[in-house]
Amino acid sequence: MDGEEDSGRPRRVHGMLKLYYGINKEGKAAEQAESLDPCDINGAHFDPELFLNKLRRECSLAELMDQETCMVKQIRSLDSDMQTLVYENYNKFISATDTIRKMKNDFKKMEDEMDCLSANMSAITEFSARISGTLQDQHAQITKLSGVHTLLRKLQFLFELPARLNKCLELQAYAQAVRSHRRARCVLQQYSHLPSFKGIQDDCHAIMDKLAQELRQKFRDGGSSAKDLSECVELLLQLDEPAEELCDKFLSHAQSRLESDLQGLEAEIRPYPSASAVKDASAPRLSSTAAAGSPTDNSPKMSTIPSPTSNTDILEFIDRGCNEFVSSLCLVIASYQELFINHAQTGELASKNIPQMANGKLQAFVGDLAARYFSLVERRIQEEKGVGDNSLLVRALDRFHRRLQAVAKLLPGSPVPNQGTEIVIRAATERVKQYLSALQSFYMDSLTDVRQALATPRLSVVSASGGGGGALLGGPASSRDASNSLPELLSSLSASILNQIKSVLASVHLFTAKDIAFSNKPYFKGDFCSQGVRESLVVSFIKFVCQSSRQFCESAGDKGGSTPPALLLLLSRLCLDYETSTISYILTLTDEQFLVQHHSPVTPVTTLCTEAREAAQKLLNHYVKVQGLIISQMLRKSVETRDWVNTIEPRNVRAVMKRVVEDTTSIDVQVGLLYEEGVRKAHSSDSSKRTFSVYSSSRQQARYAASYTPSAPMDTNLLSNIHKLFSERIDIFSSVEFNKVSVITGIIKISLKTFLECVRLRTFGRYGLQQIQVDCHYLQMYLWRFVSDENLVHFLLDEIVGSSAHRCLDPAPMEQSVIEVICERG
Amino acid sequence: MEDDAPVIYGLEFQARALTAQAAETDAIRFLVGTQSLKFDNQIHIIDFDDENNIINKNVLLHQAGEIWNIGASPADKAVLTTCYNKTSDSRVVSCAAVWRMPSDWETGSHESPDDSAHNPQTLELLCHLDDGAHINTACVLWEPMGDGKRVISLADNHALLWDLQESSTQATVSNTATLEGKGQLKFTSGKWSPHHNCSQLATANDTAIRGWDLRTMSQIYCIENAHGQLVRDLDFNPNRQYYLASCGDDCKVKFWDVRNVQEPVKTLEEHSHWVWSVRYNHSHDQLVLTASSDSRLILSNMVSISSEPFGHLVDDEELSEGEENHQEDKGKEPLKDSVVSTYEEHEDSVYAAEWSSADPWLFASLSYDGRLVINRVPRALKYRILL
User: Which residues 599-638 in chain A show a CB within 8 A of chain B?
Assistant: First the structure.
């Protein structure tokens, strides 16, 4: 092969070999060959001639010799190397040639075998075709046979069916029986014209009837669990039982169970008079939960109406109701729906309008039971009269309401949740009413306390602080006198009322708390706040305060002061305070707490204020009237019971006049505690003296003098009429202003007018007249300072003395100086 | 069409007693009794000439004492009773007597009215209503619409029924009723009911009103605490037999149905001081007149409890235009209980008011200072009632 290549491309191979040998043989020379030095023995451009010439020229002999040996040595080693390489390459060529030769032989052998294989394959194909051709007939036969076999098995199943069903019945494997029967039913139906099948069918029917009977019996017994029951129903439905009947039965069965729940609940409502021990045992627990459950309820002295008579609290009751009744109801609804509605919708039953029918029945059933449940719940709620703890009720209502939402989810479109909400609303409004009445009775109780405090001045501090929730601390001043404690009583009263209102508001506020589910209802956001709380509770209470105050005027009017006057005064001030600040404060508080949005018209603050002011006015007028009547009564008795004709010469002022002045002074003090001074007409520092001298000496003397002359009557009348022409008409029982002076003026007016009228009904002797003179002078000395216009006192006293002079048989007035001496002596 | 202005007449003396001459149905005539301790007391006979608005007066002397109460016989124009105070031995006693006016009291007056004041005639005493045992007669009541033969006097705690005989010159007590109880009980006022054949009497003592059956002289009803204070006066509704009006020191006028005395049917609180007198109009019982020591006289229209609760329907045109404002306001409303008018002509306490027996639309009132005022029912109201 080498020869072929060498001969074919001699130049190239030569070049390659040359390259090959050059690198391998002359490693050192290759470096030098790069330089184009022709003398480099290893270089490509080596020129032996030049090299020899150069050597000969340059080197000595010795050196040449050395050079020569060295060169010989090198040649020799190169030769040996070359020999080794050639030998190795030769060996390789040999083995390659051997291999190729061997391959050539092998391929030939393989070709033979391949031929043999293809021949075999064609033989196999031929065989196979032949076999399948022969098996064709048998295969068809087998298929047919297996079809027959299946049919036979089916028939066998049918023939065995009655027995199988019976066995199932025995084993109570109803489900399996029904499944089997269902499988066979169509076939039997189809071939029922054949007598044998007919027989089977009849047998099956008989058995299935029996089975249905048994199922129904089981269904009716009712002892089984809900799951069993639903299974029963399912099977019966599959057996083409009338769905309506089943619905009814199912529901009636459920009803009996639910009713037992309801009866349990009802039993709890019934009061247990005999079970007082139970009640006693539960009472402290109840109160402790109440205390723990209502941190907001910090009222010091909530009026407690006796707690309901039943032995469980409302939360327990509702819990029980929810857990037993509502959850069973939900269960019933769910399984019923599963059975009759959802199930039926997919199956063949849907066509018979069964879902609608079933749904209607369910609605009626739920409605009926829920109504009964609701009536029980309502009865229970109605028993919840104690207002001490609202949170319990609210929680109960919340739970009640929440649980009904489950029903709502199960049964969309049912009126039940709405009815539940209505119950909650009713309970809430009822509660508001109860709070109102509690507030009212609290108010009346506070008034009773105040009354007692007024009646027993010594104990005033104790009882007032007891009633007022500790707002009043016994100061040194209050122990002295009842009237001293009036402002304190007032402040404690109004503070305790305000506290009570606040705590009630807090309790009611629970209804609208965020965590209470029903607080989201529009009613609790809108109407409950504005109509319920604001109008029915707060506004009504304020109105009640005003009205009850007014009733004090009415009832006491005829009987003549069954109400202590101090109470009237105090209430008047209370109402006035309400008018000025308290009402708007309370209403603002309410509006803020409840975020009242006024959709419907509400009572404006001004109306209430007007009402309060009217009440205050009426009370104050009545106070004036009562106090005036008390003094009037003293004066009247003193005039009526004395024999004025035969009295002795006056030596001193009658005790009753001193009493009148004393009482007026004490009333002045009392009123001054609660009302401002008020304005009075300016008078000089010595007005009593000065005006009295005018009153007595000039005008009055002239009148007396006139009476002596025969023509007197005309003159007297003339004088008095002229006098009256110039003085304003005095309304005796008239409205007073809210200040001390006006009040005292009113009282003095009433008293003096009574005095005048009484004097006119009597006949006086000389000393009788003089006594009146002395008395009037005394009154003059002391009363002017209390009134707004002292001329009023002058005028009335003037009239009294004038009238008594007229009614005197022997009008000889006393000397002014003597009168003064007597009066100053006291 | 304005209402006529009130007519005012002044007496020289102070006066409390006023009555209409009950037997006189043609002339408008009032009798006034004066109170004076120093001079002879008088009975003024006030004749009112409706057409000319003029007052004619005649004076009769009543020398026995100051007159506290006066009553005219329903049968005989000339006969009247008075209760008067007599002072003797430093003692003051209240007595009652029947008097006859001199027959010719009218003759002198027309010639010279001034003359009569200087030289008045004297009343002729017919008899004393005095049984010797009881003094302090508070008032004398004639049998309403009777024949002038029977009177009742209320003295202290006794009601004495007198028979007047021999032309009223002799009086005998035919029956007595005694008020029994704790303390010194004293009748203050009374009224003889015109109903039930004149067999009932109502009396007031302190704060209570009592009804009496005159046939048995026993109490038939009692309104305890009818008023908060003293009851001053009573009057029977002339048309409704069970209705009674009362007034007293609590400034109130109350209307009662004596069949149910627990609560008054109606209460008026218009006066600002004691109410001394209450009078139903004799014909139209919705009109009630009250007199008070607040110097006012109030005419009220109590339609709802009258015998004509529905009144007459009246068109607005028929109402006169010149009325005083407050009257017009009242006039335009449908008939409601209301104050018709407040009369303020008096300067002193008004102790008595009376309707005329001749003209149902006219009334007189008397204040302590001796002023007698004659007024009429406002025309608008009058026509509304009539038409």
Answer: 629
Residue pLDDT, tens place only, A457-477: 544 344 433 333 333 333 333
- Please answer yes or no on whether A806 and B251 come within 8 Å at the CB atom: no
State how far Cα A196 lies from the chain centre.
Answer: 74
- Tell me the pLDDT band of B3, cut-offs 50, 70 and 90: low
Instruction: Assign residue B211 the CATH number of its domain.
Output: 2.130.10.10
Nearest CB partner across the interface for B369, out of A645, A717, A733: A717
CB nearest to B228's CB, from A557, A720, A809: A557
- Residue B326: is its pLDDT beyond 60? no
Buried/exposed A315-342: b ≥16 CB within 10 Å, e otherwise = bbbbbebbebbbebbbebbbbbbebbbe
Per residue in A194-207, pLDDT (tens digit) is: 777 777 778 777 87
Q: Do the domain assignments include residue B234?
A: yes
In chain A, which residues have their Cβ closer than 8 Å to the Cβ of B36? Answer: 713
pLDDT value at residue A280: 40
Sign, Cα dihedral of A247, A248, A253, A256: positive
pLDDT tens-digit profile of B91-110? Answer: 788 888 899 888 776 654 44
User: Is there a contact between B12 and A558 if contact means CB atoms under 8 Å apart?
Assistant: no
- The verdict on a CB contact (< 8 Å) between B10 and A559 is no
Domain range list for chain A: 433-624, 642-825
Chain B CB within 8 Å of residue A642 CB? no
Instruction: Confirm whether B2 is domain-assigned.
Output: no
Is the residue at B1 inside a domain? no
Give chain B's domain count.
1
Tens digits of residue pLDDT in A218-269: 766 655 566 676 677 777 777 666 767 777 777 777 777 788 878 877 777 7
Q: Is the pLDDT of residue A291 over 50?
A: no
- C-alpha dihedral sign at B23, B24, B25, B31: negative
Distance CA B234, CA B257 (A): 13
- Between B363 and A200, the more confident residue is B363
| Contact across the interface for A731 and B294, Cβ inside 8 Å | yes
Q: Which residue pairs, CB below 8 angstroms and at least 24 apart, start in B360-366?
A: B360/B281, B360/B282, B360/B283, B360/B284, B362/B28, B362/B48, B362/B50, B363/B279, B363/B289, B363/B299, B364/B18, B364/B20, B364/B30, B364/B46, B364/B48, B365/B18, B365/B289, B365/B291, B365/B297, B366/B15, B366/B16, B366/B17, B366/B18, B366/B32
Query: Is residue B280, in this structure, part of any structural domain at all?
Result: yes
How far apart CA A353 and CA A244 sit, in angstroms, is 10
ipTM for the whole complex: 0.85
Domain that holds residue B200: 7-386
Interface check for A707 against chain B (CB to CB < 8 A): the answer is yes
Confidence of residue A128 (pLDDT cuts 50, 70, 90): very high
- Of B90, B228, B370, Cβ closest to residue A558: B228
